[in-house]
Amino acid sequence: MYRHASVFRRGLMATVAAVVLTAAAPALAAPPLLQAEHQAYDLKAQPLATALSEVARISGRPIVVSTSLARGKTAPALKGRYTADQAYAALLSGSGLKLVSVGVNLVVQPADAEATTSASGEPQAGDADTLSELVVTGTRIRGAGPVGSNLISITRRDIEASGYATTQQIIQSLPQNYGGGPNEGTVVGTGRNGSGANLAFGAGVNLRGLGASSTLVLLDGSRPPMGGRTGVFADLSLVPALAVDRIEVLADGASALYGSDAVAGVVNVVFRDHFDGLSTQVRVGGAKGGAEEGLFGLLAGKRWGSGSLVLGYEVARRDALASSKRAYANSDLRALGGADYRSIYASPGTIIAGGQTFAIPAGQNGVGLRPSQLLRGVTNREDSRLDTDLLPRQTRQALYINAEQQIGSNTEVFSRVLVADRRFSVRSSTGSQSAVTVTSANPFYVDPIGTGQPVRVQYSFVRDLGAQVYNGHVRAYDGLAGVRHRIGPWTLSASASYGRQAEATLTKNYLNTYRLGLAIADTNPATAYNLFGDAGSTNPATIDQVRGFASNKGAFEAWSADFKADGPLFNLPAGTVRLAVGVEHRDERYRFASYNYVSTPAPVRSPLDLPGPRRIDAAYAEMLAPLVSEDNALPGVRRLDLSIAGRIERYSDFGTTQNPKIGLNWSPVEGLVVKSAYGTSFRAPSFNDQRQGLSSTLYQPAPLSDPNSPTGSTVVLALIGNMPGIGPERAKTWTTTAEWKPSLAPGLKLTATYFDVRYRDRIASINGDIYNALISRPIYAALLTDAPAANVVANYYASPYFSNPFNIPASDVKVIVDARVQNLAIVNEDGVDIDVDYRRETSIGQISLGLAATYVLNVKQAVTALSPRAQTVGTVGNPVRLRARARAGWTRGNFDLAAFANFTDGYTNQTVTPNTHINAWTTIDLNLGYRFDQQQGPYKDLKASIAISNLFDRDPPFANLRTSASGIGFDSDNASPIGRAIAVQLTKSW
């Protein structure tokens, strides 16, 4: 497998060198066969806007048309087989309108409009009638594409060809996205990259592996409310996929346009706001051993001469996947070549007395147990993943409503509402294990060494209390309303929005240590707690008395208002200089409280002490200037466009930032465009990063692997929490893209991008990699204090933040590890995105081929300015060298077939000594669809499809990983445990 992976890498890089450097085009699905695929149409004469929407629905080729342009116009009847562009041209014939391209989209404009095009082929209209309503991600200027940066667009056709059911699946398949971070599978799998803040099993985006908080997510250009503990990521699991028109991904820094978080890039989800008609969707499926899924969706839209209304509703459920259904999902990995990570807490348990261990024998109830029956020097162990789930049961509902209405000839009002409700349940590893002190007063007390002194018992309460069940409920509201007004050639817009995401969780079958203490001290054998036998040896009524719970409630709220104006400034020989300016205001607040019944006689409420509210004021400007066009071309310069943008942002809690960006598009010859962009970006510290106090701080001793220790391990005191005074992250980003459409090979497009991100003051901690702290001492030396003074350790032991679940004496602590969240000094990453896209009409149908990939050259991190820079690419917890998604599509008549090969490169497990290799992983996906062409009856406008992911049921490659709770045999950052999943879907238009 590793040899094949190396061949794959060499072949890919040779392709890059032979083709040219260009940016990644859609990596998700087979390239849309939109312009060349012939579809059957039978449309009556009707209003133009309705006819255009019908062609868009049938062909999957999106189109944008202003309601003012289409008002009062009638389209002729259309019957026969046409490509999408041919159908649009036929409908627009004689209307005085024409089609132009804006990025990957078609835009309707007046046929006699004077407009020039940029080096990327974008229209540069000069008056109100020719201004497109379309704003593409990566620019604030209407009717233009981003200059200097490559835009990845996942169209509606791509989404349907992929066979995926959810918005997060669509985005997570991009090679530019790293699976580590807030995702439902990583919560119980690793806990790295901020996934521990994902309290409600949401789904984030982690472009370039720089963190979900470093990727800005927008919904139709506006920020949604945030999810996770203190609101650290946008939760895409709440977005109904049926209502999505396209997803635009800008894998480049964009703080000059959008502000905080746009360091690794921007993901903008654009909804189907111009849909006209009624469509329903039903989907059922599942995988071996669980994860059964069901989905129902409805999309309804109505367009009239001066406005439109769209409503989308989706309800979906996916069952849990139990750990017991996957052989690699347990704590004892010896059979797979790994280590034994089973817990020392078991039932029956282990007695500790006189510094020795005595295993309690199985098969007895603890009554009359004699010291001679104990197993001296033996520790009973138990799999911490017993009765747990790898994936939770999820049930989701989402409602999307969009309304637009023209008022007069120059004013339009618009509004959008997204309401979502998601519930989950998962059996999780217990977090309440600790050794229990038992005195001779307990009627089941056993003294293995005959001193009569108290003994400690390592006992697991899981079988007594039942599996620990973690339930949650998420509710999100996101509403926006605004107005657009045209004054001559300028467009002015203003909007206000409110968003709220509330998350409530409840952990049941928790152990209440206060109640347990009373039951242990009980002298009545009928009601005392019995720790000396098998699970279930205690009276059930007593077990119920020690049953506790832990719950959390958090809510993120945001209010925002913005004003924007854009239009032409003046004319140059090459075209019109355009300007966009705007101001924004945003208020953010997060509230959190826990309700715990784990160590007190009654439930206790503990609010989280958080800063806030946070107020942000911003102003930005962007100018687009066409410097050279075909009319004044120079030798070697066929077209040349320049973009300059800047943003000033003031935060109420840490100050002001200024971020510029400059972009250039250069076309030396026809078919070739070279783009380059440079800018600075930043990420503001989250509420979670800034919190202090008991709820965020923990001092805990623990043994860590240490290759320099004669015993193989060293006891450390880990400092967990936040360093005071955390400031914003800052970055410099640079991308260079080449995009080539060779004239000798029609239908072929070759693209690649070189990207370079240089982070400083990165907000992070080594807590997720703390087990590697002593293995990689040179990397973490600045955070290690060897041989700490006894009084320093004693102060930590006396702190209210101190916890000692392993009962380690202070004298055993040899190293202090500072694993607090802080501004780390340096994280530099660079690499290459490529895409090869080819489609052709043949005698056997429409054929398409493609390959999208990201090859990461370096991820170098220095913990402090004085620390050595460590190469972390291709290691656990970091992006792999190569991720690729190859695609092939075939369409003939009513049949569609799309196939995908997903490749994840092999990488190093540096968390064990000696380091081991984790193999590459390749899976195959298939999606087969059939469109019924019946003109009447139940099959009219019906499409049936079957989607198979991981066709050959490939298990994730084995990884010998230790987690905070136990261990696991696969890396959930880079692989899914679902296996082969099959789903059948029916989509019908009414």
Instruction: Estimate the mean pLDDT confidence.
Output: 87
CATH-defined fold name of the domain at 28-130:
Phage tail protein beta-alpha-beta fold
Q: Which structural class matches the secondary elements?
A: mainly beta
Radius of gyration: 30 Å
Query: Helix share of residues?
Result: 10-25%
| Proportion of strand residues | over 45%
Continuous helix count: 14
**Mind telling me the CATH class of the domain at 28-130?**
Alpha Beta
Which outline best applies? globular
The count of β-strands is: 52
Low-confidence segments, given as residue ranges, are 1-36, 114-133
Specify the biggest β-sheet: 22 strands, antiparallel, barrel
- CATH architecture of the domain at 28-130, by name, is 3-Layer(bab) Sandwich
Gap between N and C termini: 49 Å
How would you describe this protein?
The protein is built from 14 helices and 52 strands. It is mainly beta. Among the domains are: 28-130, Phage tail protein beta-alpha-beta fold, CATH 3.55.50.30; 696-725 and 774-781 and 789-818, no CATH class. The strands form 11 sheets. The chain has a 22-stranded antiparallel barrel. Strand 15 and strand 16 (307-318) form a beta hairpin. The chain is globular.
